């Protein structure tokens, strides 16, 4: 049984216990205390038809998550404090959200781990599952990378059917990052890497078209692109390769070689404090794509290994 915090619908919990199961959650709030969100649950009533529940909350939970085994979750719903509503759904109605489009592993906590992309050039990549219920008008993507590549390489590739460079973090050469939104990009010039981990966060806001770029916890001068644009939510998201088509169209000479960690995507802007928290690997808001609860599928020569040392900008 697991509990997923994050914006977006999570599905396929490891609900194997007899009795009752908590299926998954879609929560927003601070840390582990949900303030607003939904819980998707099902009961497994010893051979009864499984039932799904949908709970909307507008107040902190007054009790434990998950509910004790054997407790009727419809009654658990009424044990919550504050402004809560409860709706039950037959399995079939919500059942379709159970099946992921790819055979992703159960969510993994990759704390203090890295992906090692071993070859150069490489055809390896890591597919990431991101659950977004609607197009994004704001987002923030953060990650940490460690490489001695001098050739162009992709760091984060988010493609929709309409636009392969819907979100792209790309390093065309040392000392330069390109940040794409909806096929257009802005360039951020940075000091050349001297063999250290680099942490980057890039965020974008549709209303103003403002793009922020943070390197190792420091903001760069803001730039503007794609004011009024909407980022599509049906996307193939990957590390290691740059998509020139939806889920494909790779150029191995744009592949990533080296180590990558701490990948996150939020469907929101982050405050300066949270940008610094991301760099310092401190506690972060729930995210549709979170390194601590990563659903991924590795393809080709890429392996998960422990970090050799703390990656805090060094
Ligand atoms: Ca592309």
TrEMBL record:
Co-factor(s): Ca(2+)
Pfam families: Pentaxin
Example GO molecular function: complement component C1q complex binding
Similarity section: Belongs to the pentraxin family.
Gene name tied to this protein: CRPL1
Gene Ontology terms: cellular component: extracellular space
InterPro entries, sorted: ConA-like_dom_sf (IPR013320), Pentaxin_CS (IPR030476), Pentraxin_domain (IPR051005), PTX_dom (IPR001759)
A Gene Ontology biological process term: innate immune response
Domain Pentraxin (PTX): 111-310
Protein's UniProt name: C-reactive protein
